[in-house]
Amino acid sequence: MTVEQMYAYAKEKYAKWSIDVEQAMTTLKEIPISIHCWQGDDIGGFEVNKSELSGGIDVTGNYPGKARSPKELRADLEQALSLIPGHHRVNLHALYAETNGEAVDRDELKPAHFKNWVDWAKKMNIGLDFNPTLFSHPKAQNGLTLAHPKEEIRQFWIEHCKKSRKIAAYFGEELGTPSLMNIWIPDGFKDIPSDRLTPRKRLKESLDAIYKETLNQSHVLDAVESKVFGIGSESYVVGSHEFYMGYALKNNKIYLMDTGHYHPTETVSNKISSMLLFSDVVALHVSRPVRWDSDHVVILDDELKEIAIEIIRNDAIDKVKIGLDFFDASINRIAAWTMGTRNMVKALLYALLMPHDLLKRYQDEGNYTARLALLEEFKTYPFGAVWDYYCQQMNVPVGEAWLEQVELYEKNELLIRN
Ligand SMILES: C[C@H](O)[C@H](O)[C@@H](O)C(=O)CO
Ligand SMILES: [Mn+2]
């Protein structure tokens, strides 16, 4: 059967439940995913005085072909974007600045250092998001930055974050779409702290200083990302869930939830609805923790589908900023981007093809039998046929055909890098 025939069959099956498949695809086209640039070079960046990766995160694997320059990284991103249906965004970190061979420290970064990225984004017609980089730097070596006991160190990082807001505002202004400026810091302790309060007070004061200047929200959106533990901060993380949720809600900032940053039986899908009752916008780093915050490539698992369902059934497409955060150097990096992002889009399509009103009604009526029965039956509805048709319509490879293109790019481009 052809893609069109399979699609026609699927359309009929969904129509039985009054699900408009065409409308689902139209909606899907408008949902941007913020694709993290750092999968392409193992969070290395291109600073002149480059430091080793630090901050309690780790990239394992040594697959050949990692991007060695901004030019290569952009070419790799273009290759991945050509295999992913829809219109997406790219998320940068401060360590991807381009300084023309000059050593520019993080507290001195300027919008001009990201001009090439902006020119490229204009060419690609995509938005850019941004992150200050508070790791992989001599001033972050003991795992403390914005909560550091030394005023001088805190000031350095405060300045870096202020500069980062300006860079994000430049992205927003130039590209006509607000840039999400997300602060994540590694601060914490390996062992049991003797004072939990003071570092948190310091972090709160640092954030107040960073956000003192009001910037245009149509250019920059401020977000803060919590964490439960990292390598070397197993016992205590200053920017914990309660800390940042409290800070964001009180100060009108966006709370960013990374799916790898909670206790193993906690799920972000179960947090979105609560956050949406108290906040206009929430942000996500969709990742895949395996036993720890391992940042595996996102797969189409139950939690991914549940996150997508929460976004769709709560009418929250414009309220949830979806970003990705994984880094795997044991497989082809372009394949990692392609799979992870296609899976996020797939999960959203899956969620768009469900009878949410009916399922909500069953719940209110106490008909839990029908609720469970339908939730289960829809798992084997022919959503794959709609996905294939969507890919075809969006001029990207159908099914596993994208893999051949990645293999070709690997042969012609990646394997000649060393
Ligand atoms: C590189 C990212 O900023 C980083 O992964 C952060 O978002 C995080 O999730 C740290 O665990
Ligand atoms: Mn993250």
UniProtKB/TrEMBL annotation:
Origin: domain of life: Bacteria
GO MF annotation terms: L-rhamnose isomerase activity
Pfam families named among the record's database cross-references: RhaA
UniProt remark on cofactor binding: Binds 1 Mn(2+) ion per subunit.
Cofactor(s) named in the record: Mn(2+)
EC number: 5.3.1.14
Entry annotated with the keyword Metal-binding: yes
Binding-site residues for Mn(2+), renumbered to this chain: H261, D293, D295
Compartments, as annotated in UniProt: Cytoplasm
Root EC class: isomerase
UniProt record similarity statement: Belongs to the rhamnose isomerase family.
Protein name per UniProt: L-rhamnose isomerase
Organism from which the protein derives: Lysinibacillus contaminans
Name of the gene this protein is made from: rhaA
